[in-house]
Write a structure and sequence with these properties.
The chain has ten helices and four strands; from the N terminus they run H-H-H-E-E-H-H-H-H-E-E-H-H-H. With 484 residues, the chain is of the alpha+beta class.
């Protein structure tokens, strides 16, 4: 190699410098968007004076077990494990997309053995060749195609991370919702147990009055029917509780029937949390951030497709030592340097169609981004509206319940004095007992609307999520051991 001429080295250096300068000319880059892709209103329909909270909102419910269940789900939920795996896939794909920015270097070795027999000389000749060398290659990114592909890969990876955050927020909300619904079913059971006890007491009194010829047999039958109706609601509540426990177990990455939840009082719904501005959703909602990153990635794909229509320039080099014996392999050497320019002339419109396809993907991502942003705003407004009217609905139903209880007391008084039949008592009792059970559902709906509001507002607490990869490492070590 020391015999390469000085003029050849200078020519090669000048040629490489020229190529590097050409590579710096990358005209195909996405143009910055001048207008917002999706504009939002300046404020929500409701206003809160609270500071905007982007942390772990479920801790405001004040239940240590609930906090532990959410944290366990964030580390063990299988959907989140899937999201982590997809994130690793996206990271590997981003590395592959950017690999062409760097030269390649390969080590190669050859050995050949040949034997020939001549019928004329009656001799057999044998020859061997040994070779070892290096091969290098590098494509100059003249038009920015490789850089655009690498940028698209990086943005896809970032979008995948936001998808992971979206999964985590969804799982946290589902765990809280299931826990609340379990507590609701248990509170229903307690109310039904009290109603059964009260109905049994009324039945005893009516039967006593019947034996004393004060009440009729119809009164006894009606009260027995009412008691049976209340008891009939218990199995449905028990079944719903078990189904909710099974769903919660699945959210925790466990088989059904493997978890227990302690009884707890339903938390009170506090004042509205800090809402911030609608524009904050662009930063706090991971699904919105993901959609924006996917749009940016699509823009870079267009740039890559446009650059792919222009010629590409590649450099390849090789250095090889060879010899007929291992001991003489370094006696002979060869050096090669090749530059190849490839430009598409006829491809049946393939590359042009690729550009149009990439631009269509951009249009799709623009529409997807707008839809995601407006959906996020709608979800916040829906949750605010539902919570507002649910509070008024609960207040109205509470007045109805109070009135029903007063009516029941009056009907019982008139019945005990023999001024009226048992039918008004039964009607008022059914109304009271139905409302007592329904009020629990009304409170549950209010709590679930608050959960939906927190989910709709997003947050930044998912930035601290870490992959729980102990199982993956254990599996990898097991596979390596079995292969060994």
């Amino acid at each position: 190699m020391r015999y390469i001429s000085t003029s050849m080295r200078k020519s090669t250096a000048m040629f490489c410098c020229l190529l590097v300068l050409m590579a710096g000319c990358s005209p195909f880059k996405p143009s910055p968007r001048q207008e917002p892709v999706a504009a939002l209103p300046s404020a929500y329909s409701l206003y809160s004076e609270q500071d905007r909270e982007t942390g772990k909102w479920w801790e405001a419910f004040g239940n240590a077990e609930l906090n532990g269940l959410v944290e366990e789900a964030l580390s063990a939920n299988l959907d989140i494990h899937v999201a982590w795996a997809r994130l690793r896939q996206a990271g590997a794909a981003a590395t592959q997309a950017g690999a062409d920015k760097y030269p390649t270097l390969d080590l190669n070795g050859d050995y050949s053995h040949s034997s020939a027999y001549s019928s004329k000389t009656k001799k057999q000749t044998t020859s061997e060749t040994h070779a070892i060398g290096l091969g290098a290659g590098y494509e100059l990114d003249l038009w920015g195609r490789i850089q655009a592909g690498a940028m698209a890969g990086d943005l896809d990876y970032m979008a995948s991370r936001e998808d992971l955050s979206t999964s985590a927020m969804t799982v946290a909300g589902e765990v809280v919702s299931r826990w609340l619904e379990i507590q609701v079913q248990r509170q229903k059971k307690r109310i039904l147990a009290e109603q059964v006890k009260a109905n049994e007491t009324y039945l005893e009194l009516i039967e006593l009055r019947f034996r004393n010829s004060i009440s009729t047999a119809l009164d006894v039958y009606q009260q027995r029917e009412n008691l049976a109706g209340v008891k009939a609601q218990v199995p449905e509540v028990e079944s719903e509780e078990q189904v909710l426990l099974h769903e919660l177990a699945l959210l925790l990455g466990k088989p059904a029937g493997s978890i227990t939840v302690a009884d707890a009082d339903l938390p009170e719904v506090a004042e509205l949390p800090g809402l911030g501005l609608p524009a904050d959703l662009l930063a706090n909602r991971p699904d919105v951030r993901s959609a924006g990153l996917q749009l940016a990635s699509a823009d870079w794909d267009v740039a890559a497709a446009r650059a792919n229509r222009l010629p590409s320039l590649s450099l390849t080099g090789s250095a090889e030592f060879s010899g007929t014996q291992i001991t003489t392999i370094f006696n002979n050497w060869a050096l090669g340097l090749v530059a190849s320019l490839v430009g598409p002339l006829l491809d049946g419109g393939y590359r042009k169609a690729e550009v149009e396809k990439a631009r269509a993907v951009v249009d799709e991502q623009v529409a997807t981004y707008k839809n995601t942003v407006y959906t996020a705003f709608k979800e916040v407004e829906d949750a605010l509206s539902q919570e507002k009217w649910q509070r008024e609905y609960i207040a109205a139903r509470q007045l109805q319940l109070d009135a029903s209880r007063t009516s029941m007391r009056e009907a019982l008084l008139r019945y005990s004095q023999g001024l009226d039949t048992y039918l008004p008592v039964l009607s008022a009792m059914l109304s009271v007992q139905e409302l007592e059970v329904s009020m629990i559902d009304y409170r549950k709906d209010l709590l679930l609307y608050r959960v939906e509001l927190h989910r709709a507002l997003g947050g930044t607490w998912t930035d601290n999520l870490k992959e729980q990869n102990a199982d993956r490492k254990t599996a990898a070590n097991t596979n390596e051991s079995s292969e060994g």
